[in-house]
Amino acid sequence: MSAVYSQEKTNLVKLNLFPLTAGNLSIEYERPIAKRITVNGTLSWRPQASLPYKSIWESIVEDEEGVLETAKLGAFSMTPEVRFYLGKKDVFKGFYIAPFIKYSHYNAKLNVSYDDEFGVEKNLPIEGGLNALTGGFSVGNQWHLSKNLSLDWRIIGPNYGFSNGKFESKTNLNSIEQQEIREQLGDLDLVIVKTELEVNGDGATLRTKGGFTGIRTALSIGYRF
Question: How many CB atoms lie within 10 A of CB 212?
Fold first, then answer.
């Protein structure tokens, strides 16, 4: 490899523009390992903030009590992939397919409102995280804009895998408050995963487990060096 690429710029760092609209920072690094094959790695991070794209969340979560209105979500992911460029052009250029594996961690915080035995409204803060491991493949195209700049359009990257999560609150609850919490969280129907709810005198725990699916896409500006 050193013989083939010793005269070329073999490093490409890219910034994905799409996630910036949702408060995400997504950076990629790509490097060739053969004539038309490269390895690409993506790191993405979002600080905990209000839910992005609420209309999408509303389509997959039945939330009769409006719990998601005050929910906060943060995320981190890393995605290694191998890219196969199908043309006969320079590396980093042309149409490609790219199988990948993606690890994601989501941390969330939400408040559940309930009335105590005196009719006084209280908030139960629930925090936790969810881990997901998925696999899939992307198709896309990359262009050279200049000697050092490139444009990478990952058209689509469907992926599927598994997830598990745990969200809890440690708070003393009497029997009336426990029933109120069960009703509030019971109305929060997570269509895409199975949920297990436990409420007792020490607080509430919500566990999630099941399949996990996603779609990767990107429009990235890259610098080659």
Answer: 22
List Cα–Cα distances, 224 to 12, 30, 150, 154, in angstroms.
4, 9, 8, 18
Report the number of distinct structural domains present in the chain: 1
Assigned token pair, 47:
């600080």
- Per-residue pLDDT at 56: 63
CA angle, residues 90, 95, 97, in degrees to nearest 5: 115
Structure confidence by residue, pLDDT tens digits, 138-191: 999 999 999 899 999 999 999 999 999 999 998 888 888 888 888 777 666 555
The predicted model scores a pTM of 0.84
Q: Distance between CA 214 and CA 19 in Å, rounded?
A: 14
Between 79 and 68, the higher pLDDT residue:
79
Q: What is residue 178's predicted lDDT score, i.e. its pLDDT?
A: 87
57: CB partners within 8 A, 6+ apart:
51, 68
Q: Residue 128: what pLDDT?
A: 94
Alpha helices (H) along the chain? 2-5, 54-60, 175-186
Paired tokens of 45: 């991070």
Rounded CA-CA distance 182/185 in Å is: 5
Which residues are 152's β-sheet partners? Answer: 142, 220
